[in-house]
Design a protein that fits this description.
- With 340 residues, the protein is α/β, with parallel strands linked by helices.
- It is built from 14 helices and 8 strands.
- The longest helix has 18 residues.
- The protein is globular.
């Protein structure tokens, strides 16, 4: 903005004048740059109030230089567009929509062939339901939490995964939960814990698993007293980049939620936890699992394991759990101690 000679005088602003929302709202596209805006922007505003010339070009250049640097380095040397791409699993895997459609078809067939207790209600919300595939009395139970970046997909799509555990005498529960933006992340964590409360009497050997966002929720569920161990697949364990990218448009994470719900920065659960990711996944997804594994190792070296499945992407990796002979099915049996 420039003050032109001969222009009509500006009305005198209120002494507390400041652009609406500038202090209290942070545009994620410029990250933390707005935290430093007072260094150069407030002198400009003061100049408007006093009808004085703007601060020097050099000071404005310093401010906008900082702003530009922040935009170009939103997270780990990525701008917003690069960060969005770094977490866009669907775009990274050609034909991903067709893969999910095939899961739906296979899940429908499995539900028609295997007796199951469907849509058991564990809470009051519409999506507070679970499907239970019973392998028999006294069998261990694998509780699977679906993915979808906390804002899409449903438990029914993932019934096909039960084929692998059922072949080894492992019961399976698929949990639904309320999605964003209807529910904040803390509410989702609470719903998963409520589902575990509901399921706890069903088995004295209850284990949690989940994929993608479900991997995050599985890691958060490890502190539930009924949980004996977990398998988190292609999960998100540091929520800071999620807060800064397109996923947060609906999720709406703030700084406090990132701190409270990032497994990476929380205390290790003190229970066996296996992490898995595909060797063909996006680098950021691989880094998430590797960083969390390192954090766990520093606290509970003998209770964690990391599985890198070469040749698998974010979607194909689930075949290793759905198959009775799959690598993740084998990891699950080792976790439960049923591989002998």
């Amino acid at each position: 903005m420039h003050v032109l000679a001969g222009a009509a005088p500006l009305p005198r602003p209120n002494a507390s004048f400041e652009p609406a929302g500038l202090t209290h709202q942070r545009d994620t596209t410029i990250g933390h740059a707005c935290q430093n805006y007072r260094e150069a922007l407030l002198p400009c505003l003061a100049a408007v109030q006093r009808r004085q010339p703007f601060p020097s070009h050099d000071k404005r250049r310093i401010f906008f230089g900082k702003l530009s640097d922040a935009v170009m380095n939103l997270y780990r040397n990525m701008d917003r567009a690069a960060l969005d791409a770094a977490y866009n699993n669907g775009a990274a895997v050609p034909g991903s929509a067709g893969i999910v459609a095939s899961w739906q078809d296979r899940s429908k067939r499995l539900r028609s062939m295997r007796p199951a207790k469907l849509d058991l209600r564990y809470g009051e919300a519409e999506r507070n339901r679970l499907d239970y595939f019973d392998a028999g009395a006294g069998t261990p139970l694998l509780v699977f939490i679906h993915g979808g970046y906390w804002q899409m997909r449903e438990k029914e799509t993932f019934s096909f995964l039960a084929a692998g555990p059922l072949a080894h005498g492992i019961s399976v529960a698929l949990v639904g939960y309320t999605l964003a933006p209807e529910k904040r992340l803390g509410g989702m964590v609470a719903e998963i814990n409520a589902a575990l409360d509901f399921l706890a009497p069903s088995s004295n050997a209850l284990y949690v698993s989940g994929w993608s966002a479900g991997g995050h929720l599985a890691a958060m569920a490890m502190t539930h007293p009924a949980v004996k161990g977990g398998l988190a697949i292609s999960g998100i364990y540091d929520l800071e980049p999620i807060r800064l990218c397109y996923v947060n448009d609906k999720l709406g994470l703030d700084d406090e939620e990132v701190r409270r719900h990032s497994p990476l920065t929380l205390a290790a659960p003190g229970k066996p936890l296996r992490l898995a990711y595909g060797g063909n996944e996006l680098p950021e997804l691989q880094r998430q699992s590797e960083a969390y594994f390192q954090a766990l190792q520093s606290q509970q070296r003998d209770l964690c394991a990391l599985h890198r499945l070469a040749g698998h992407d974010h979607f194909s990796i689930l075949e290793e759990l759905a198959s009775p002979d799959g690598a993740l099915m084998h990891a699950t049996r080792r976790l439960m101690g049923t591989d002998r």
